Amino acid sequence: MKKTILLVATGFITITANAQKVKEADVPAEVKSTFTKQYPNVKAKGWEKEDGNYEVEFDKDKNEMTLVIDPKGHLVATETEIKVSELSKTIVDYCAKNYAGKKIKEASKIVDAKGVVTYEAEIDKKDVLFDANGKFIKESADND
């Protein structure tokens, strides 16, 4: 799954495209513990560090997922890949109008620690973000 860019302000979280890979042995115990508590019996596919937080990628119920966890072990956000068909009509219509002729390649649902939901549509190497009501938030380049 492509890395995503999310807005840091107003309760949104950043999972950025330039994260550095980290060996599991270098991940703090508190961070690994949070992942294990959230998803027991699930194996991490890889760890990265970005903006001081740790990101763990894994598969759950045939979905690609990412958790963002701060160094003290607090869950920051959960990102779950969804089918493009699960995006709201508002999001699909916005993308069709503003990215004419471009196809949404991937979609994700992101939930921050406060329960704020955002959606991401990946279009032509760009991550386009929307709030839970389908209102456009921002676009950023996906360098992955």
Commentary on this structure:
This protein is mainly β. It has one domain: Nuclear Transport Factor 2, Chain: A (Roll). Helix content is 14%, strand content 42%. It contains two helices and nine strands, in the order E-H-E-E-E-E-H-E-E-E-E. Strands 1-2-3-4-5-6-7-8-9 form a nine-stranded antiparallel β-sheet, covered by helices on one side. Strand 2 and strand 3 form a beta hairpin. The longest helix has 10 residues. The N terminus is likely disordered.
Give the helices and strands, then pairings.
Blueprint: E1 20-22, H1 29-38, E2 44-50, E3 53-60, E4 63-69, E5 75-82, H2 89-98, E6 104-112, E7 117-123, E8 126-131, E9 136-141
Antiparallel strand pairs: 1-2, 2-3, 3-4, 4-5, 5-6, 6-7, 7-8, 8-9
Key attributes of the depicted protein:
144 residues, mainly beta, Nuclear Transport Factor 2, Chain: A, nine-stranded antiparallel sheet, 2 helices, 9 strands, 14% helix, elongated
SSE order, one letter for each helix or strand: EHEEEEHEEEE
Helix proportion range: 10-25%
- CATH-derived topology: Nuclear Transport Factor 2, Chain: A
CATH class identity: Alpha Beta
* Shape category: elongated
> Any guess at the CATH architecture?
Roll
In what order do the strands lie side by side in the largest sheet? 1-2-3-4-5-6-7-8-9
Kindly state the number of beta strands. Answer: 9
Largest sheet: 9 strands, antiparallel
What is the structural class?
mainly beta
Q: Write down the Rg.
A: 15 Å
Q: What's the mean pLDDT score?
A: 87
Work out the count of structural domains: 1
| CA(first)-CA(last) distance | 9 Å
Point out poorly predicted stretches: 1-17
How big a fraction of the residues is strand? 35-45%
Number of helices: 2
